[in-house]
Amino acid sequence: MATKLSSLVIPLVVLFIIYCVSIIFFHFVEGWSFLDAAYFTTMTISTVGYGDIIPATGLGKMGTIALVFVGVSVAFYVISHLGVLREKKVDPHIEKRLGVLRTITMLQSKKIKKGELKALRRKMKGVKIG
Asked: Looking at the domain 8-124, which fold is it?
């Protein structure tokens, strides 16, 4: 599964749309200010849920249920894929260090041929550990 930054564009746009629709929904259905509606939406999507602002109408409660399932799911999707992107950024550095450790293990076990030893010396030249 190749994850690129461009693969997050649509989920981020969807999350933004959910966020905006939710703010407008709670502003009109619950009569909250836009700031209170944005605050409630943020607390709900982030799963913090302080509980200081709660919907009073049945329609508002149903909207909150929908926001929890849809908004939280999309937000977690975006967050998990950001983690995958970060992991891939770190991965080459980790692979280089693992290669050094494999080389050291091979040298210690003395299961290496002379030709491979010369190749390893060339490969290790200039590699900094630490």
From this structure: Helix Hairpins (1.10.287)
- Crossing angle of helices 58-109/9-29, nearest 10°? 150
Q: What is the mean pLDDT of residues 11-38?
A: 96
Backbone angles phi, psi at 30, to 5 degrees: -95, -15
**Has this prediction a pTM greater than 0.90?**
no
Contact yes or no for 22/67 (Cβ under 8 A): yes
- 58-110 pLDDT, tens digit each: 999 999 999 999 999 999 988 888 877 766 665 677 777 777 787 777 777 77
Residue-range domain boundaries for the chain? 8-124
- Cα(37)–Cα(32) distance, rounded to whole angstroms? 6
Q: How confident is the model at residue 28 (pLDDT cuts 50, 70, 90)?
A: very high
CB-count exposure of residue 109 (10 Å: 0-12, 13-18, 19+): exposed
